Amino acid sequence: MFDGLTERLSGVFDRLGGRGVLSEKDIDEALREVRVALLEADVALPVVKDFISKAKESASGEAVIRSVKPADQVVKIVYDGLVDMLGGEVATGLNLALNPPSVILMAGLQGSGKTTTTGKLALRLNKVERKKVLVASLDTRRPAAMEQLATLAKQVEVESLPIVPGQSAPDIAKRAMSAAKLGGYDVLILDTAGRTTLDEAMMSEAAEIARIANPTETILVADSLTGQDAVRTAKAFHERLPLTGLILTRADGDGRGGAALSMRHVTGLPIKFLGAGEKIDQLDVFDARRVAGRILGQGDVVALVEKAAQDLDVAEAERMAKKLAKGQFDLNDLSAQLSQMQKMGGMQGIMGLLPGVQKVKKQIAESGIDDSIFRRQQAIISSMTKAERKKPDILQASRKRRIAAGAGVDVAEVNRLLKQHRQMADMFKAMSKDGGKGMARMAAMMGGGDMARLKAMGGGKLPQSDPNAAGGQGLPGLPGLPGLSGGGDAKPNPLSGLGLPGFNPFKK
Q1: Helix 331-343 and helix 314-325: axis angle, to 10°?
Q2: 3-state helix, strand, coil in the chain (%, to 5)
Q3: Residue 391: C-alpha distances to residues 328, 331, 388 (Å)
Q4: Best CA proximity match to 502, nearest among 441, 439, 431, 445
Q5: Potential cystine with 270: which of 92, 140, 243, 365 (Cβ 3.0-4.6 Å)?
């Protein structure tokens, strides 16, 4: 999400950064480009006008024009404007009643992802918030809608209201309320019926359900891919139904992000969550500061730590740490690191959360290198015997040919994987010899590589552009991925080697 806007704004700020002092003309030109970038991102025109007006007012002071680093001041002004546009400094989570059960009413048009989002929200409340959740489908019109929610509930390990054929939506709501109270549930999520368009029957039914359930949260689920249509839908719903918040689905497929940027300003409603993918666990908390940071290419390290805490196995991380402390790193360990990386959204997912990787990200995209490389590497390791994974040194030519055939790759790719593993194993062995000093060396090695190392690993052809251009900070090392350098002053990221010594999200 916001990829196009991030790229445009990065270009604007790069040009400003090359100037020692900015004049009012420079600032006007920059804000004009920001305005065009926002409009191209499908942000509503009134929202853009208000944003630019406030930014000009903030940028008109002497402090900006005469500051030591005026470009940084402009970035800060744009950042503050984005945060304000997206909802302000305070993150808005779900409002759960002190006296359970809390009722969450899910509304929206058909096809917006309402039922899937209900499952995602139930999973988050159950696993992260530790709440006892009951879900109930009130969609009596769409074929198999109730069965779909029951299947999702089973998948995320929460209870669903038993289906009774022939009941009306208000009657199901009454039965769900009674079941939630008698069953001692903390949260009841009601998934209402949707329509292809707004109509009177739909809104009347939703209003009747809201009267019966008296929900603490009434959430509108909107498809971000519909752009400003999603904003208009939210406004129409809010006029008829007292909404308390929004969830935007398919945010991963919306490269512009205009709906998210316009929604808060137009409706006055907070965005609670973003649906960031098709998987049942891909529902991200919406935080204006963190989203603004992503738009400006600053990444979202907090989200990365949260992902690590949710997805990485504590016992496995501790076991790995003990092995590496002894300088031991076999192909089973490399496979485990690749699996952890896939769990956290793959290379693209992790890169989107790291600061200063926009230019490197573009180079990788142009080179054709993607997560398929890591899947092939895992296939190669899976084609080995237990003995071969533990002692790669025994792999001679005949064994390599057998492994390559089993994984469906060339022998050259097997050799590249073995070379990569040897480099990592040697690094961990050296690290184990001098205690804490080795940790610093590992971070430097993982943060100070270059694009050629990625090329060697993936076998792809990289663009001829200079990877050190614009002084980018680069991409620190990730599990199974050598570091990528974006400049001579690249700094190792503290998240280098997730799940390895030096980063343990489970220790306070």
Answers
A1: 140
A2: 55, 10, 35
A3: 11, 8, 5
A4: 439
A5: 92
Task: Give the CATH number of domain 3-86.
Answer: 1.20.120.140
Whole-angstrom distance, CA of residue 452 vs CA of residue 53: 45
Both tokens of 266, joined, read 């137009």
The candidate with the shortest Cα–Cα distance to 424, out of 395, 402, 453, is 453
Over residues 118-122, mean pLDDT: 95
* Half-sphere exposure (Cβ direction) of 44: Cα atoms closer than 13 Å: 21
Each residue of 216-247: pLDDT tens digit? 999 999 887 777 777 888 888 888 888 899 99
pTM above 0.90, yes or no: no
Is 3-86's fold the same as 102-286's?
no
Instruction: Mean pLDDT check: name the lowest of 130-139, 313-322, 448-457.
Output: 448-457
Q: State the Cα angle at 327 between 321 and 331, rounded to 5°.
A: 80
Using alpha carbons, select from 130, 106, 103 the residue that is nearest to residue 116: 106
- Sketch the domain layout of the chain as residue ranges: 3-86, 102-286, 311-471
Q: What is the CATH architecture assignment of 311-471?
A: Orthogonal Bundle (1.10)
**Could you confirm whether domain 102-286 is CATH 3.50.50.60?**
no
CB of 268 closer than 8 Å to CB of 232: no
With tokens 């940084």, the residue in question is 72
Is 467 in a helix, a strand, or coil?
A: coil
Q: What is the mean pLDDT of residues 412-428?
A: 87
pLDDT digits (tens, 9 = 90+) for 364-379: 666 656 677 888 888 9
